[in-house]
């Protein structure tokens, strides 16, 4: 049975951090908007936004070595770290603004101060880390970063990681006290709860978008109730595909020219998790190191403090794997069904040019528990098997794009794809993802609502929410310090 619904201003697919953020931003800019969020699962934030499906690192370039790549000549490029840091500060401003809204909830439910460290072993990586620190600490966003090769100092920073370590091993670390742990699941659900209390908002669970068709100035969105045979038709002026790995198939269904040629490369993941309070209490940090040769950037090994529902745990990993699912709760047919005439060449080109990655994923899939523990002991030499259990992490779908020279390239970032008329947009890709949701969604608003964002009302509201955007934060030290301190204080961060 098919039912027709009243016309909406927008339909957002997926009840994760992306859709929740975009919906709240747009409702703050225009409270009269009528919108519906459609989610396939029984609740929000069950896929990549779930706290056990991601590392919860408030990605700010403080510890992630893949954001500061080293060239063959030994030079280190910090530009990506600076950009991501400023983007995270924009996200913090929005969250700080929301903390002041009635009914939003306590920020400690979703964000907590946790130091961010980079840790390396061996003379070559030590020299790299030293250069990285020299360049980053000269920038105002990283001025508090401390470098050390002193074992006693590092033992004070990460007491769990030093006992049992070879006394002759050369090590070095940097530490920033401004790091955070973010429970993006809790944040998503606080945003959804706030949204649900607003007039003109519907959040629908157990429902799947099965059709998208352009009709005149609107989109017809077919929504199937997974608990019944009912199908609804939603009429809307704007559609956002924020369904994580599920966004690519929907983008293909839409048929827009801008979405043609994209493919997806799914990468699964696993963590080792520890809840033993005697172990957890000895590690208060997120510690990132260098990725193995051939490993994707999302597989940089790290030992993390997590704060979920007020309780601390440790995660180590991730251990990558491969599945043809585009979502953790998806179908094994997701990858084969995504192959089209327009993207088969890029997909085959990526398969040909990324054999190191393929071998790496095969090796990861074949690992035993003892081999996973051996990787952990490079961080925590005295780790005991009985303290750790394996957790399945979230699914990531990396972007495959057409390329004139290579045929296709594999990307590990995020990409916003929007139609020329701005009536539909999709977010593809993975890390840094959730940490920079707010600037990504602001970019979407600027592209898809260009006429509205130029109005005095929208400008004034954006000025109320955001004291400074990325460019000012990157170039103006005084503005950066003021804005970061104010948002940090409102969020209850101890290093604000």
Automatic annotation (TrEMBL):
Its cofactor is FAD. Pathway: Carbohydrate metabolism; tricarboxylic acid cycle; oxaloacetate from (S)-malate (quinone route): step 1/1. PANTHER family: L-2-HYDROXYGLUTARATE DEHYDROGENASE, MITOCHONDRIAL (PTHR43104). It comes from Azomonas macrocytogenes. The keyword Oxidoreductase applies. Keywords: FAD, Flavoprotein, Oxidoreductase, Tricarboxylic acid cycle. It is an enzyme of class 1 (oxidoreductase). It catalyses: (S)-malate + a quinone = a quinol + oxaloacetate. One of its GO terms (biological process) is tricarboxylic acid cycle. Its EC number is 1.1.5.4. GO terms for molecular function: (S)-2-hydroxyglutarate dehydrogenase activity; L-malate dehydrogenase (quinone) activity. Belongs to the MQO family. It comes from the Bacteria. This is Probable malate:quinone oxidoreductase.
């Amino acid at each position: 049975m098919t039912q027709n619904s009243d016309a909406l201003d927008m339909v957002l697919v997926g009840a994760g951090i992306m859709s929740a953020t975009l919906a709240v931003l747009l409702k703050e800019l225009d409270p009269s908007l009528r919108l519906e969020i459609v989610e396939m699962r029984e609740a929000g934030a069950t896929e990549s936004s779930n706290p056990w499906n991601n590392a919860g690192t408030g990605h700010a370039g403080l510890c992630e070595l893949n954001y500061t790549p080293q060239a063959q000549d030994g030079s280190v490029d910090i530009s990506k770290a600076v950009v991501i840091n400023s983007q995270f500060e924009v996200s913090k401003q929005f969250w700080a603004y929301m903390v002041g809204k009635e009914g939003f909830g306590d920020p400690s439910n979703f964000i907590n101060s946790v130091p961010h460290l980079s840790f390396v072993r061996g003379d070559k990586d030590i020299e790299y880390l030293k250069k990285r620190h020299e360049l980053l600490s000269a920038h105002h966003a990283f001025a508090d970063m401390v470098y050390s090769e002193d074992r006693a100092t590092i033992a004070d920073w990460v007491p769990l990681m030093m006992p049992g370590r070879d006394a002759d091993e050369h090590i070095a670390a940097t530490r920033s006290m401004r790091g955070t742990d973010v429970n993006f699941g809790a944040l998503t659900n606080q945003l959804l709860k706030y949204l649900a209390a607003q007039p003109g908002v519907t959040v629908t669970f157990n429902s799947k978008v099965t059709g998208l068709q352009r009709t005149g100035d609107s989109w017809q969105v077919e929504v199937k109730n997974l608990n019944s045979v009912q199908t609804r038709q939603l009429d809307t002026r704007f559609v956002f595909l924020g369904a994580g790995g599920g966004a690519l198939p929907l983008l293909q269904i839409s048929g827009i020219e801008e979405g043609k040629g994209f493919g997806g490369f799914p990468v699964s993941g696993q963590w080792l998790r520890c809840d033993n309070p005697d172990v957890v209490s000895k590690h208060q940090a997120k510690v990132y190191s260098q990725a193995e040769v051939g490993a994707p950037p999302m597989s940089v090994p790290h030992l993390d403090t997590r704060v979920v529902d007020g309780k601390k745990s440790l995660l180590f990993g991730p251990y990558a794997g491969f599945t043809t699912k585009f979502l953790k709760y998806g179908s094994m047919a997701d990858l084969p069904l995504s192959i089209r005439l327009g993207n088969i060449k890029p997909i085959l080109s990526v398969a040909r040019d990324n054999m190191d990655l393929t071998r790496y994923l095969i090796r990861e899939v074949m690992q035993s528990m003892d081999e996973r523990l051996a990787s952990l002991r490079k961080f925590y030499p005295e780790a005991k098997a009985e303290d750790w259990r394996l957790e399945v992490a979230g699914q990531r779908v990396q972007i495959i794009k057409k390329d004139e020279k290579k045929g296709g390239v594999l990307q590990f970032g995020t990409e916003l794809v929007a139609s020329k008329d701005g009536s539909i947009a999709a977010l593809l890709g993975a890390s840094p993802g959730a940490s920079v949701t707010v600037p990504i969604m602001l970019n979407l608003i600027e592209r898809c609502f260009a006429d509205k964002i130029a109005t005095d009302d929208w400008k004034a509201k954006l000025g109320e929410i955001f004291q400074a955007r990325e460019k000012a934060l990157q170039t103006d030290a005084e503005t950066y310090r003021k804005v970061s301190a104010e948002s940090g204080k409102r969020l209850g961060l101890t290093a604000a």
